[in-house]
Design brief:
single chain; mainly beta; Pectate Lyase C-like; 14-stranded parallel beta barrel; ten-stranded parallel β-sheet; 3 helices; 37 strands; about 10% helix; globular; disordered N terminus
Length: about 400
C-alpha cells in the first residue's frame, strides 16, 4: 500500500480502523486518555501513551517517512532507540499538548521530535537531564524542536539550594553526530543545554532561569546561533560554579583542542527582572580552557554584570566580529572583550573587529580594527537588531511554551 501512494498527494483513509496515509509515509496516533494497545493506531482508534507504544514495540514498527502524532495527556517517562532508513517523526498533533516526564533517545538515527512538553513534574522525581539524545551509542541525524522543557513552572518558594539541585535541561550526547536542537524553551534548570556531539546545530532556543551555565559548546564543528540565554541564579560563594551564558571546553577533559565552532547572533542577558531573587553575576562568553582554533564569534549581544563579556583564551585563527557587550548594573564590573593567543604558538593569528564594549584586552596575536567604546544607545540598537533577527526566524512567542522570548528591558 505504501508504494502505491502518490508522493504528491495526501490521502486520508477514514474507514473504520484505518490509519492515515500521507505523502512518503503513514500517520499514526497516540492518545493516553482514549488509546488502547489493541487499536491499529488510527485517528479514531489510537494507540495509548507513548511510553506504552514504546513498551509494546509498536514504535519500532514505524518505517522511514512515518509520523506518530501525540495527543494531550501524560505520556510517561519515555526511553527508546532505533535506526531508520528515512526520518521518523514523533510530534504533537495540531492543537494538542502531549506531556512527558522524561525523554531519552539512547541511540539511533533519523528521528525528529517536535512540539512536546517535557517535565519531571509529570512523573516520579529523578536526577540530571530532562532530555538526553544520543548518549548511549552511535547516533546521528536527530532533531528536537519546538518543545518546552522545564523542572517546574513555579519557583517562587525555591531556595538557593533548590536552584543548585534542579534538573538540567537538554543533553546532546557524546555518542552522537549531526544532532539539531531548534526552537526549544528550557526553563528553571541547573544547566540549560550541553552540546557534546560534533558537527551539530543549536539554534533559536530560549534558555531561561538557570543556576549554572546556560549553554556549553564542547566539540568540533558545532554551530550555536540565534539563542536567547537569560536570568542567572545563585552567586558565589554559595554556588561554587563559575557561571557562563555560553562556555566552551573540550568535553570530558576541560583542556584540549576544539575547532571550527561558530557562535552567532545569540543574546545573553544576566537578569531581566530587577527584583529577581538570588541574582548572580554571569560571564557572557567564557572560553578559557584551550587550545581552540577556527572559532567565529559574531553578532552576539551580551548584557552581563561581570568583567568577562566575551573572552577567548588559547586561540588561533579565531575571530570576534560585530559583537556588542554592555552592563546596566551599578557594580564596578564593566564587561570587556578579550582575546589571547596560544601560549606555545608564536605564529598564531586572531582578529577582533567592529565590536562595541567598555574595553578591549588584546594580546600581540590579535589584529584589532574598528573596535569602539559602547554606549547605552549603541547597545540598544544592537540588542534591538539581534532580537528582530531572532523573532523573524522563530517568532516573538514560543508557541508550545506560550511565552515571549524576551521581556522588555530598560537600557540606560
Amino acid at each position: 500500500m505504501r508504494n502505491k501512494i502518490s508522493a504528491l498527494v495526501y490521502v486520508s483513509l477514514l474507514l473504520c480502523g484505518s490509519v492515515v496515509f500521507a505523502a512518503g509515509g503513514v500517520t499514526y496516533y497516540s492518545d493516553p486518555v482514549k488509546g488502547n494497545s489493541g487499536n491499529p493506531g488510527s485517528a479514531d482508534k489510537p494507540w495509548p501513551a507513548l511510553s506504552e507504544v514504546v513498551k509494546s514495540g509498536k514504535l519500532k514498527s514505524l518505517k522511514g517517512g512515518d509520523t506518530l502524532l501525540l495527543r494531550s495527556g501524560v505520556h510517561g517517562a519515555v526511553t527508546f532507540e532505533g535506526d531508520n532508513a528515512e526520518v521518523v517523526t514523533v510530534a504533537a498533533e495540531k492543537g494538542q499538548k502531549p506531556q512527558l516526564a522524561r525523554l531519552t533517545l539512547t541511540k539511533g538515527s533519523k528521528w525528529t521530535i517536535r512540539g512536546l512538553i517535557i517535565s519531571p513534574s509529570f512523573g516520579t522525581a529523578y536526577d540530571k537531564y530532562i532530555v538526553s539524545l544520543g548518549d548511549g551509542g552511535a547516533s546521528k541525524e536527530i532533531t528536537l524542536e519546538d518543545s518546552f522543557i522545564y523542572t517546574t513552572l513555579d519557583t517562587s518558594s525555591w531556595t538557593e539550594k533548590d536552584w543548585m539541585n534542579a534538573n538540567s535541561g537538554i543533553n546532546m550526547g557524546r555518542a552522537g553526530v549531526n544532532i539539531t536542537l531548534r526552537n526549544n524553551y528550557v526553563l528553571n534548570t541547573r544547566f540549560g543545554i550541553s552540546l557534546c556531539a560534533p558537527d551539530s546545530l543549536c539554534e533559536g532556543n530560549i534558555i531561561s532561569d538557570f543556576s549554572a551555565d546556560g549553554l556549553r559548546t564542547t566539540r568540533d564543528g558545532q554551530v550555536v546561533q540565534y539563542n536567547i540565554i537569560k536570568n542567572e541564579y545563585v552567586p558565589q560563594p554559595v554556588d561554587p560554579n563559575h557561571d557562563d551564558g555560553i562556555q566552551s571546553f573540550l568535553f570530558n577533559k576541560g583542556g584540549g583542542l576544539v575547532s571550527n565552532v561558530t557562535i552567532r547572533g545569540n543574546v545573553i542577558i544576566n537578569q531581566e527582572d530587577p527584583a529577581q531573587k538570588f541574582p548572580a553575576p554571569m560571564q557572557g562568553l567564557g572560553f578559557f580552557d584551550g587550545p581552540r582554533e577556527n572559532f567565529l564569534v559574531e553578532k552576539n549581544v551580551v548584557l552581563v554584570n561581570h568583567y568577562h563579556g566575551i573572552s577567548l583564551y588559547e586561540s588561533n585563527n579565531c575571530k570576534i566580529i560585530d559583537n556588542a557587550v554592555y552592563s546596566i548594573w551599578a557594580s564596578k564590573m564593566r564587561p570587556w572583550i578579550k582575546m589571547a593567543g596560544e601560549k606555545n604558538n608564536p605564529d598564531c593569528v586572531n582578529t577582533v573587529s567592529n565590536n562595541i564594549a567598555f574595553s578591549f584586552m588584546l594580546d600581540k596575536s590579535v589584529k584589532g580594527e574598528n573596535n569602539t567604546k559602547v554606549t547605552a544607545e549603541t547597545f540598544k540598537k544592537a540588542l534591538n537588531e539581534a532580537l528582530a533577527a531572532i523573532n523573524s526566524k522563530f517568532g516573538e512567542l514560543h508557541e508550545t511554551a506560550g511565552r515571549k522570548r524576551m521581556e522588555n528591558m530598560e537600557i540606560k
